[in-house]
Design goal:
Layout lengths: L5 E9 L6 H10 L5 E2 L10 E2 L7 H5 L8 H16 L12 E6 L5 H12 L10 H5 L3 H10 L5 E4 L5 H14 L5 E8 L4 H10 L28 E9 H6 L6 E10 L12 H14 L8 E3 L6 H14 L7 E2 L2 H4 L6 H15 L1 E2 L22 E2 L4 E8 L3 E9 L1
Parallel strand pairs: 4-5, 4-6, 9-10, 9-13
Antiparallel strand pairs: 1-7, 1-8, 2-3, 6-7, 8-14, 11-12, 13-14
Helix pairs in contact: 3-6, 7-13, 10-11
């Protein structure tokens, strides 16, 4: 075990496949997408979304639910799940040594649009004094700290759709620098709002398969045409491996490598040769002190947008000298949760290692001939693996690569 190993001792997860880690894992392994027409999206051109089912924020927060937005509710629920899963007692931990890092990709449209309507209607007196604290991206990290008594470093990290993965990398740095003993790290997003849907639709980023919601998210498929907007949150409890052992915790995986790089190419499009991704990948492997041949599986970014999937696939072929390990994109089931995706997929990668099973890529009926990868489809694949990689890319050219090793 490397002295730089960070143990994953607890996970919390809310996705459209389930409101906890167990049901989300089962849903992802089913290979069936829960995407549906969303009445709350109104008459926008693409009213599709993936919502977290059976999630009662009021049961978690009580009367305080009104003062925070949904992206905060999801993050706090995931954090509470992760802390319980890790066997931690927030009443006895040293809160000054507990950090909270949460990735968020976009501001809260629910709060900001409601406030804008009041402004345009000149209804100034009815504008909520909580408009700013409800909509700021640091609200999730702040509320987790308040609820759980964490008083160490806390922050919001935003690198678009790589935010969740970047938050985990930032948390790892804090632990290795001995700034914290425990960090709750992850990502959250609640983007299912008409304005967000319309904005991505105008970019041509969303799937237009309104006639077939469950078949809309089709990573690596020949006829893929974009992603499905989704909400969700994932939080991991991270500790130095030595500290986890000392308190008798059982690691679920080791977060052993992290790499990040920026394309410096375009505000929305990925570098056509995946330059930033390759740099981040190489850095992550070096950080983990592993070779490409040590990697048994890749949880791909795989958004189902035509160019993104091709660029990622071609880069993986180069990075693995023409022989990448089995690949999956869990976004076929979960949809694209934007800033939460990297954290959600880190939790799923942890579960992949624990179960030694790769979940399938949903809706993959015919692989794009331009994508020469072993993409797991139709059903879960039992597979022996000691280390896995999870990729995340974001608008602006942000790239983050995580390496997790079996515990």
């Amino acid at each position: 075990m490397s002295r730089r190993d960070i143990a994953v001792t607890g996970v919390g997860l809310l996705t459209s496949a389930g409101a906890d880690a167990v049901t989300s894992w089962q849903g992802v392994c089913s290979g069936v997408s829960p995407a549906a027409i969303d009445p709350e999206l109104g008459d926008v051109p693409v009213p599709l979304s993936c919502r977290v089912p059976e999630f009662d924020a009021a049961a978690l927060l009580g009367r305080a639910v009104w003062r925070t937005d949904r992206f905060v509710h999801l993050a706090l629920a995931a954090a509470c799940q992760a802390v319980t899963d890790a066997g931690l007692d927030t009443a006895t931990w040293d809160g000054a040594r507990v950090g909270v890092i949460v990735g968020v990709g976009t501001e809260s449209k629910q709060t900001s649009v409601a406030a804008l309507r009041k402004y345009l209607d000149h209804s100034y007196a009815t504008l909520s004094p909580l408009t700013v604290p409800r909509s700021t991206v640091n609200a999730a990290a702040a509320e987790i700290c308040i609820a759980l008594g964490a008083r160490g470093p806390s922050m919001a990290v935003t690198t678009a759709c790589a935010s969740g993965a970047t938050a985990l990398g930032t948390a790892r740095d804090l632990l290795l620098a001995d700034r914290c003993d425990i960090v709750l790290a992850g990502g959250t997003e609640a983007p299912c709002h008409p304005l967000t849907s319309l904005s991505f639709s105008q970019m041509g980023a969303l799937s237009t398969r309104v006639h077939d919601p469950q078949g809309a998210s089709r990573p690596f498929e020949r006829d893929r045409d974009g992603f499905v907007l989704a909400e969700g949150a994932g939080v991991l409890v991270l500790e130095r491996a030595s500290d986890a052992r000392a308190r008798g915790a059982r690691p679920q995986a080791y977060f052993c490598g992290y790499g990040s790089a920026t394309d410096g190419y375009h505000y929305a499009a990925a570098h056509p040769e995946g330059a930033g991704f390759e740099q981040a990948f190489t850095a992550a492997l070096a950080d983990a002190d592993l070779h490409e041949t040590d990697i048994g599986h890749i949880n791909a970014h795989g958004t189902a947008t035509p160019m993104n999937d091709q660029i990622e696939a071609a880069a993986l072929r180069r990075l693995f000298n023409g022989h990448p390990p089995p690949v999956t994109s869990t976004k076929g089931v979960t949809g694209h949760t934007l800033g939460a995706a990297g954290a959600i997929e880190a939790v799923l990668a942890t579960l992949t290692l624990r179960h030694q099973t790769i979940p399938p890529t949903a809706n993959l009926d015919q692989l794009d001939p331009a994508i020469d990868l072993d993409v797991v489809a139709k059903k879960p694949r039992p597979h022996r693996m000691q280390a896995v990689i999870s990729n995340s890319f974001g608008f602006g050219g942000h790239n983050a690569v995580l390496v997790l090793r079996q515990a």
